Amino acid sequence: xxxxxxxxxxxxxxxxxxxxxxxxxxxxxxxxxxxxxxxxxxxxxxxxxxxxxxxxxxxxxxxxxxxxxxxxxxxxxxxxxxxxxxxxxxxxxxxxxxxxxxxxxxxxxxxxxxxxxxxxxxxxxxxxxxxxxxxxxxxxxxxxxxxxxxxxxxxxxxxxxxxxxxxxxxxxxxxxxxxxxxxxxxxxxxxxxxxxxxxxx
Length: 201
Known about the structure:
Elements: E1 2-3, E2 6-7, H1 14-17, H2 26-35, H3 49-60, H4 82-98, H5 109-126, H6 129-136, H7 150-155, H8 164-169, H9 177-182, H10 184-188, H11 190-199
Antiparallel strand pairs: 1-2
Helix pairs in contact: 5-6
């Protein structure tokens, strides 16, 4: 089943299939199922038309979706009585009134990717520690770099032209290659080894 451009396997549970969306974790998926009153063992192929419409409306615009949805049950689950549904609505409304709704700020797919890229570009532009680590292609959260940094070197690298753009971006000017290699402190630093390695490839 294709929902908002994402393929959801028909035989997968709804709470598991929703994690195919970029930005939905298992915890967020359980919150969505609880919001729409979807059964815990409901599969994608068992979703009714009303349930699909409610799910699509929630994922497309979570900020404008009502806090309490119309109770829609799976065909195999018995319907609750009117008094129980009313009590459930009152409990949910009072509980969500005491704290901020976590689904209001839900960002998915392309919007989330753009936000992450914009945040990384912001850190690089202001030149803080995280931005410098992104530019140098090193881990940004205090991980060790003597070993086990292959993923960071693969993902956290900036668009550089023979190493000079990186130095200029960090506010260090644009020194010549001879001036850069002539400094023993630069050669001994992690940044010097990284830049010189990129220039001689």
